[in-house]
Amino acid sequence: MILVTGAAGKTGLAVLAALKARGAKVRAIVRDDAQILPVRQAGATEVVVGDLLDADVWRLATTAVSHIYHIGPNLHPNEVRIGQLMIAAARAIGNCRVVYHSVIHPQIREMPHHWRKLKVENILFDSGLPFTVLQPTAYMQNLLPYLSAIQNDGILPVPYPAATSLSLVDLHDVATVAAKVLTEHGQHRYATYELVGTEPLSQTAVADTFSQILHRPIEVRPVSLATWEAQALTNGTAKETVKTAVAMFTYYATSGMTGNPQVLRFLLGHEPTSLADFIKRTVS
Fold first, then answer.
1. Domains: count for the chain
2. Which stretches within the chain are classed as H helix?
3. CATH number of the domain to which 130 belongs
4. Of 160, 183, 197, 256, which is most buried with the most CB atoms under 10 A?
5. 275-283 vs 203-214: helix axis angle to the nearest 10?
6. φ/ψ of residue 62, rounded to 5
7. pTM for this structure?
8. CA gap 279, 284 in Å, rounded
9. Is residue 105 part of a domain?
């Protein structure tokens, strides 16, 4: 039995679908009853509802589990504590391998959510458990909230400069690798894999790719952090989450987020999804 945490988010649902395609038996942890149906439809055969900060939930969820795919709640201030509880539960059942969904370059202090993932990695390394760490870069799917503005207004609105370089990855490729390392027993123990789909792309290059596929000019229009922050708070995003996101965007503006596609190419056995192919698939 494979346990997937954070199963109702976009990453969790993609991983469930990839595991289903491999015929794996999967249990999912979700936050509330409303998330049960979506995770079952994606491929979960069993579902546990509960709070990841509750040790009793972990004891229930890890019964008869051989693998845990742990996705920490996105930008969550208590991610380290949740990671500690997950690792303690894995150690308690014995003979359990943890595949941890981390992030590329977790050692960057300027981004609190990266730094928290590094702390969880350290705890995992010290646990004595067999592990695999996946470190994906920013998803191509993060562009989807901008799709309406791109298609209707010819604008790519991003909260950092047009010159900001980011390496991207398709979530579908990440999920494929996650299912691979969870089901290919013994081949990926103690490995840490950076999952990067593209060479570094400026936001201008991203806009140009949309332009070529949509056959219309697309302009990058940077949004000030103050404007982005005000809108996020108006939309009901928690203050701590907004603060963490602003720190991320600030780092992106000065240093970008770059990586190399070679590891993902090796794991997939073929070329990673290109940004152009992702856009074609999305707009079609």
1. 1
2. 10-21, 36-42, 55-61, 79-93, 112-126, 147-153, 171-183, 203-214, 225-234, 239-255, 262-268, 275-283
3. 3.40.50.720
4. 197
5. 50
6. -95, 5
7. 0.95
8. 8
9. yes
Q: What 3-state DSSP class applies to 249?
A: helix
Per DSSP, what are the bridge partners of residue 4? 28, 69
Question: Does residue 240 belong to any structural domain of this protein?
Answer: no
Q: Tens place of pLDDT for every residue, the chain, 284 residues? A: 999 999 999 999 999 999 999 999 999 999 999 999 999 999 999 999 999 999 999 999 999 999 999 999 888 889 999 999 999 999 999 889 999 999 999 999 999 999 999 999 999 999 999 999 999 999 999 999 999 999 999 999 999 999 999 999 999 999 999 999 999 988 999 999 999 999 999 999 999 999 999 999 999 999 999 999 999 999 999 999 999 999 999 999 999 999 999 999 999 999 999 999 999 999 98
Q: Is residue 146 part of a domain?
A: no
Is residue 257 in some structural domain?
Answer: no
Q: Which residue range(s) make up the domain with 14?
A: 2-138+171-195
